[in-house]
Amino acid sequence: MKIEKTKWGSNKRSKRIFMVQSLLSLVFIHVIALTCVSGDLPKDRRLFVIERSKNANQICYDLNFHSRGNLDADKPLKVYWYNKTDRPGAINNLSHIQEKYAYGYSSRLIGDGNYEITLVSLS
Q1: Within 13 Å of residue 71, how many CA atoms lie on the same side as its CB?
Q2: pLDDT digits (tens, 9 = 90+) for 13-27
Q3: Domain residue ranges in the chain
Q4: In terms of Cα–Cα distance, which of 65, 72, 120 is closest to 96?
Q5: Contact 56, 39 (CB under 8 A)
């Protein structure tokens, strides 16, 4: 039986190494792209953002502090649209439907200033 060499190597190990290197390269490129895209957003209280494929606008989830520096117990997160397309830099509140069915959240104090947050789209 004759074993033919492929351009990626002659055994499964070299193919796996190539696949792992390719995957790591894609992850690295994705992280760099997100860092560059999100570079203009305020980050001092940012937990995360949701980006959609429809346009570049983002839904931002920031910690919501009182003026005294304590987390707001009733609304621990401030959720809003960050416009990056037609009015760059503009901030808009979610609509009632968006808040109730898509991008809103529910929260529950679990003790010692810690909260359990559930996105409404996941509940």
Answers
A1: 16
A2: 666 665 556 555 544
A3: 1-40, 41-122
A4: 120
A5: no
